[in-house]
Amino acid sequence: MNSFTSRLNSLFAFTLSVMAALTFGCFLSTVLNDHLRPVQLSVGKVSVKNVPDYSADRERSDLGFITFDLFTDLSPLYNWNVKMLFLYLTAEYKTKDHELNQVVLWDKIVKRGENTILDFRKTNTKYYFWDYGNGLKGNENVTLTLRWNVIPNAGTLPNVRGVGSEVIRFPDQYTAGRF
Amino acid sequence: PKLHKVHLQQWDQHNLTGIIMDYILPYVPESIKSIPTHMDFDGQKRAERYFQIIILAFAVAGFGCGYVTQFFSHTLYILFAGVIISSLLTLFPWSTYRKMPLAWQPARSSDNKSSALASSSGNQTQSKGKKKKLKD
In chain A, where are the structural domains located? Predict the structure, then answer.
């Protein structure tokens, strides 16, 4: 502490330690949140085709097509420790080849400050609903759920499933032609 | 000759600041050169205590305000305001930090220089190791 620069150095180092403590305090203030919200999901058109997947091994695989409705209000999830939410719509189902299949059909990033009320009607999926094999035809129990990944300012990044889901029943026949 | 020797040393040590000061210092007016740049030891202790307290106070206030408004950026802005205020108050050698100077012994003639060093009082925490041994 003998010169301007040494005092500046100790003040700066002290400030950094204080900022680290404040950030930890911000994390502690939100560590007990459960991040749950109700979600309303429904599907419209449901069909399945059996086409070769040219990006995989050229065998014929099941390709599902759905349109969905989504309504939810995510504003209570946002606090001073949330930078953004990464939302993803997942279809989960069981086939005779694989016990658990999960396919992400649609995703969205909602940053803090953006519109948090989601109201999608008759929306097409963003990504193809490919199955590994032929497990979608006649599948009675394909569960559609909306999940989100909470991206904080400080702390852990939990994956949370929204409360509410929709069951899709795929038809027994493949659909021929275009959609 | 002394100036030349110092000049050579600074070139050897790549001391750019020293070289610049050699060329600028003769032109700086005396009123500026006589501005004190040191603090007493007691002043240094008080300055460090003051900036720690000010920054902590602004940090706590900022945390409260940030929690109420739910914006962590508000917490950091308030903290930075506290850092600027405490920097202005404690980094510069204001005269309040020079109010307890060391009580040096009066200067003696050069024959008794070593005994004068041994008997000087005050907190000898500076770099002169030889002085420490003599004092104890």
Answer: 1-32, 34-168
**Which residues does chain A have within 8 Å of residue B79's beta carbon, measured at their own beta carbons?**
15, 18-19, 22
pTM, whole model, 2 decimals? 0.76
Measured between alpha carbons, how far apart are the two ends of chain A, in Å?
Answer: 77
pLDDT tens per residue across span B92-124: 999 899 899 888 898 888 765 555 455 444 444
Helices (H), chain A: 4-29
User: How far is B120 from B48, CA to CA, in rounded Å?
Assistant: 26
Dihedral (Cα; B62, B64, B65, B66), 10-degree rounding: 80
Tell me phi and psi for residue B20, to 5 degrees.
-60, -45
Cβ pair A14:B51 closer than 8 A? yes
pLDDT digits (tens, 9 = 90+) for A21-64: 999 999 999 999 999 999 999 999 899 999 888 887 878 899 99
Identify all chain A residues contacting B124, using CB atoms and an 8 Å cutoff: none
Smallest Cβ–Cβ distance between A80 and the set B48, B72, B92 belongs to B72
Q: Which of A165, A142, A166, A155 is nearest to A33 (CA)?
A: A155
Tell whether domain A34-168 is in CATH 2.60.40. Answer: yes
Q: Is A29 on the interface with B (CB under 8 A)?
A: yes
B90: number of Cβ within 10 Å: 25
Q: What is the ipTM of this complex?
A: 0.84
The number of residues making up chain B comes to 136
